[in-house]
């Protein structure tokens, strides 16, 4: 048993404070990544871009984060993991601060890319931290607390960023994320014990992952589903305001509804995923595609606000279940290679976010936002075939 685990056993409260600080870190990082979604029109106007052009900030962020996640495994073991995690949060803070001073798209993109590097490296490192903080019998709870920050970012982070941007401007929204990043770095400094570096993973482990047909199928399904989702979700703000007549001031409230529905989806997944993972993922994906498709169907009049909110709630809850389902499927299928397989999964997930944002912008420019949303829904439906062909994973003991 290493020193950090002994320390956790003797000072359990500090360990849980460290776990909570990591959860807040996850919240901050994901909020920073997705913040442009709720303020895309304002960014585009201020930086003299189209919505599709502003969406490239999401594309580049996702791709750089994916590359950083893969390369993080090469960080020398002599570097303190505690210092690395704190340093990455400080880099994120500087990235957001630099974004507030941007007056051209080039400067804004440069500022965002440094944050993307911190994002990808952080997620690659965080998987090895929880097991050093708590005893094995509390690992599940600790992991759930850490990753609840991701759900909280969708529930609160993105809507609050949109609200701040609407009330005071997008620069103030990134300023708020800067302050939160700094506060999180201080919390990590205070709560984290000394963390041992993980063993370096050999190349043959990754080769084995890419020779596993089940994992390859799961990676392919993830790439298709996440790309389609973010092709539409990245442009949800102009889709609602320009094609459905939703007032700009209502966007943050609608995003909050979507986020709360996503939280409900996480709860549903937690109760049912162990016994019905395949049918739950397929049903949730179909409901999400149907809701998105209805937002993409052209009609003679705009949808009522309550109807739009209901569709966003179904979409948000369904995709939250799909996210949990795909991650659970991966962990159960990867066996002893769960850690490197997760790193590959994170890279594919972030690449898909960037690709979806890029393709969504290109398609919407050519055929319009509603048609783009409809096409994204069609891709989701087609992805059902990939899920159907996957063998349900064994339950973890």
From TrEMBL:
Carries keyword Isomerase? no
Q: List membrane-spanning regions.
A: 12-32, 52-71, 83-101, 113-134, 141-161, 173-195, 215-236, 248-267, 279-297, 309-331, 343-363, 369-390
Membrane topology note: Multi-pass membrane protein
GO CC, alphabetical: plasma membrane
Keyword Nucleotide-binding attached:
no
Q: Which InterPro entries does the UniProt record give?
A: MFS, MFS_dom, MFS_Efflux_Transporters, MFS_trans_sf
Identify the PROSITE patterns for this entry: MFS (PS50850)
Ranges of residues in domain Major facilitator superfamily (MFS) profile: 11-395
Q: Tell where it localizes.
A: Cell membrane
Write the protein's name.
Major facilitator superfamily MFS_1
Species of origin: Enterobacter sp. (strain 638)
Query: Taxonomy-wise, where does this protein's organism fall, top ranks first?
Result: Bacteria, Pseudomonadati, Pseudomonadota, Gammaproteobacteria, Enterobacterales
